[in-house]
Amino acid sequence: MSTQQTIIPPFLKEGDTIAIAATARFVTPEQIHAAVSLIEQQGFKVFLHPHLFDADRQFGGTDKNRALYFNELLINNEVKAIWCARGGYGTVRMIDEINFDLLRKNPKWIIGFSDVTLLLNQVYNQLNMSVLHATMPIFMFDKSAEELKQAEYSFLQTLDFLRGNKLQYEVKLCEKHNEHDFEGFVIGGNLSILLSALGSDSDGSWHNKVLFIEDLDEYLYHIDRLLFTLKRAGKFEGLKGILVGSFTQMKDHQIPFGYTVKEMILQHVSDTNCPVIFDVNSGHVPLNLPIPFGIDVKYQNGLITFASA
Questions:
Q1: pLDDT-based confidence at 309, cuts 50/70/90?
Q2: Residue 167: closest CA among 297, 44, 64
Q3: Fewer C-beta within 10 Å: the chain N or C terminus?
Q4: CB 266 within 8 A of CB 223
Q5: What span, in angstroms and rounded, lies between the C-alpha atoms of 261 and 278?
Q6: With the CA atoms of 226, 229, 235 and 238 taken in that order, what torsion angle do they form, in degrees rounded to the nearest 10?
Q7: Are 239 and 274 in contact (CB under 8 A)?
């Protein structure tokens, strides 16, 4: 087991309140209605701040107001978790106005992914507090029947974890490289956001960690640049393992780049003993299973198991 002591926010019980926040792009009531209904059906209360549906250009209100009401959610003792409504772009514009001492004094779960990767890493690296990389309310909006079924399952898995139950994913059929058992704490998230955090307060050591990465709507050559930059910065040194989620809607030029995402990743670990598990069901896909940072994860015999805290 990992020996690092991490602050684990209190798990939730029936009747507890989950707040929805928009740290990046604006969100509408229609876009989160299905998710709010599902959360309430599962026995939780949902708090929608009066400024949640603000809009300023493409953002969920001005940078200052997004930070102000996020701080109010941190102070609010009734709120046991803050679930970001969506990504897009904008968390970086307000993150330095968040008073993280409020979260240190009153730990609660911060949930989201994509652009919210920056917020998750800031909390984990600066407060040594566990956070949850997971689907967001907008991903239950405007979906086909099959996509909605997968999105609902992702939400139920996330809520199950928030109740304090252990997570376990079977990945026996996933493609693997240098497969062997490993154990550690997960770090990572959206690859593009991780690169943008280099050298900032949101950055931290990946040594002895298990790296999770995913991305959306990027050119293949850009993924190659991101991986090379992180490697040259020493971020891949000493990793226990790598979990690769979805790399969806990748783009290419008329003259093909020539490498797939898998081939690029394997190039960067070819000189190490680091095991890589591909096709993990997490990222910009309807089946987006939760991955907690700061809780021990073990890979063994085709199973990824997150220890119950």
A1: low
A2: 297
A3: N
A4: no
A5: 10
A6: 100
A7: yes
How much is the pLDDT for 5? Answer: 83
Place of tokens 């803050």: 82
For residue 279, with 0-12 CB atoms within 10 Å meaning exposed, 13-18 middle and 19 or more buried, which class applies? middle
CATH superfamily of 167-306: LD-carboxypeptidase A C-terminal domain-like (3.50.30.60)
What would the pLDDT profile of 153-177 be if each residue is shown by its tens digit? 999 999 999 999 999 999 998 999 9
For 199-245, what is each residue's pLDDT tens digit?
Answer: 999 999 999 999 999 999 999 999 999 999 999 999 999 999 999 99
Cα gap 286→247, rounded to integer Å: 13
How many residues comprise the chain?
309
What whole-number percentage of the chain has pLDDT above 90? Answer: 95
For residue 192, give every residue at least 6 positions away whose Cβ sits within 8 Å of its Cβ, in sequence order, or none. 215, 218, 222, 226
CA distance 86 to 26: 8
Topology (CATH level 3) of domain 17-162: Rossmann fold (3.40.50)
In one-letter notation, the amino acid at residue 27 is: V
Mean of the per-residue pLDDT values of the chain: 96
Radius of gyration of the chain (CA): 18
Spatial separation of the C-alpha atoms in residues 93 and 171, rounded to whole Å: 37
- Sequence ranges of the domains in the chain: 17-162, 167-306
